[in-house]
Specification:
alpha+beta; 24% strand; 481 residues; seven-stranded antiparallel β-sheet; eight-stranded antiparallel barrel
């Protein structure tokens, strides 16, 4: 009788757990479905009293944009609540994207690599504020007029205030000779030399070159290969067992690696490029593993308990400097920290929240990935009621054809040749060598227009009543006709 009673109790418990599990699964499926069908346009334009917002289904949007594959991982309450792959990892091999598919993380490699530098600081092997040449033995950064008073330091390389050249790297095609790091730093690869071009410690200037010097510093100190160092001290301790900094990617990983795709939908030559500048751009990983780095830094920050790094180190890492959004590796905003990534044929993003145990990693094997990454992120943020990620809003203020006529003419970009502006509909069309495709601009004020697709501002300068020049992003052109 007693055993029968125990049997009934256990049966009730199992039934209850099963019912709860089925209910939880259904609720999660519904949540994922809302996200998949709730992608919203990052650029939202206000026309009069109405705001133009478009919503998309993820698979339809991928097809519309010509994107091969997407992989997503979402962490909620400190655990990966769901992860999912969409589309194709390699069309010729008919391989689908799964949660185990490896993607190139691009510049997200930087904050993960920064972790090892900070560990070396904690071990007393480097001082973040000493001249980096103190720790370099196989190559030295040449001094010049800009280093007379201030020096390039590890801290300044980490927060991009070292005054160094070379923002990013091009990668090397399969079969191309891959230069050594000292050769790359001296301009013997496919980029210019990494040199100090302004006084260190001043304004923020993004430099993958600085992270490549940091990579060499780490290997000079430890006398091991960089991928081996990162695997032993960062990736494996975090549980990133499938991830690697090895470049070229070893054959053992080829059958689980996504192939990169160009803007026109064709495969990247040789499937992917090799990045010997591993600290800057060489990490291969999955969203589910990438999120583990964000979780570790987040957990140390939120609990104020030591982990892979010490509390004091993480607190310092997440102090925004230089433009108010750059930490020691990741970008740092009011509510979030993280990094974006861009390698040939790949785009990626990692976002972690500072106040709550939430994080999102999205990886795409397409040059066009930035658009859909932002749209997916906005949908996730809305579903989980998270702060810190908002769409870009612009206001359209109509100008007459006569007013638009003031901007017509030829503009000269010093390094990118001439471009032309003409009237198109209720805005302007900008064409020229600097643009992959014609850019359509809409007016927001008398002198400020925005790109209808991206929202990027184009600011026109007047000289008396005539247009003198235009500035956007980091480009500037003079009106010559």
């Amino acid at each position: 009788m007693k055993s029968f009673f125990c049997f009934l109790i256990n049966l009730l418990i199992l039934t209850s757990c099963s019912g709860q599990s089925e209910k939880d699964k259904k609720l999660l499926d519904e949540r994922i479905s809302r996200i998949e069908n709730g992608l919203q346009s990052n650029l939202q334009i206000q026309y009069g009293d109405s705001l133009s917002i478009q919503y998309y289904n993820i698979e339809e949007r991928m097809k519309e944009l010509g994107i091969s594959g997407v992989s997503i991982a979402v962490m909620n309450n400190g655990i990966i609540e769901w992860a999912k792959g969409y589309g194709i990892a390699d069309s010729l091999e008919n391989r689908k994207v799964t949660t185990e598919t490896l993607f190139q993380a691009g510049s997200i490699s930087k904050p993960v690599a920064a972790t090892r530098s900070l560990q070396l600081m904690e071990q007393g092997l480097i001082d973040l504020d000493l001249n980096v040449n103190t720790y370099l033995s196989s190559w030295k950064l040449p001094d010049n007029e800009f280093t007379e008073k201030e020096k390039v330091t590890t801290r300044r390389m980490l927060n991009h205030s070292a005054g160094l050249t070379i923002s990013g790297f091009l990668g090397y095609k399969k079969g191309e000779t891959t230069p050594s790091i000292p050769e790359i730093l001296d301009g013997k690869g496919n980029t210019g030399p990494v040199r100090v071009y302004k006084e260190p410690g001043g304004d923020w200037q993004y430099s993958g070159g600085g992270y490549t010097i940091m990579q060499l510093m780490i290997t000079d100190i430890e006398q091991k290969q960089f991928p081996e160092i990162m695997q032993e001290y960062v990736l494996d301790p975090l549980g990133m067992k499938s991830s690697t900094y090895e470049n070229p990617l070893p054959k053992a990983y080829h059958n689980i690696a996504a192939t990169g795709y160009n803007f026109d939908g064709t495969q990247v030559e040789g499937k992917w490029f090799t990045y010997p500048e591993m600290a800057a751009a060489g990490l291969w990983t999955t969203p589910s593993e990438l999120i583990l780095w964000g979780k570790e830094i987040q957990q140390i920050f939120q609990t104020q308990k030591d982990g892979l790094l010490k509390v004091q180190t993480v607190n310092e890492m997440l102090i925004p400097e230089h433009g108010e959004d750059q930490g020691l590796g990741p970008y740092v905003l009011k509510h979030i920290f993280g990094h974006g990534g861009s390698d040939e044929g790949f785009r990626a993003d990692l976002t972690a929240w500072k106040e709550t145990p939430n994080a999102v990693a999205i990886m795409v094997n397409s040059q066009k990935g930035n658009v859909i990454i932002k749209e997916i992120l906005l949908s996730i943020v809305q579903e989980y009621s998270l702060q810190g990620i908002n769409p870009r809003t612009r206001v359209f203020n109509e100008q007459s054809q006569k007013e638009l006529g003031r901007f017509i003419g030829k503009y000269h970009f010093p390094e990118h040749g001439d471009a032309k502006i003409s009237i198109k509909g209720n805005g302007l069309e900008f064409t020229g060598e600097i643009f992959t495709n014609p850019v359509f601009l809409l007016p927001e004020t008398d002198s400020i227009f925005f790109n209808k697709n991206t929202g990027t501002y184009y600011r026109f300068q007047f000289e008396e009543d005539s247009i003198n020049s235009v500035k956007f992003s980091r480009f500037e052109a003079k009106k010559i006709e």
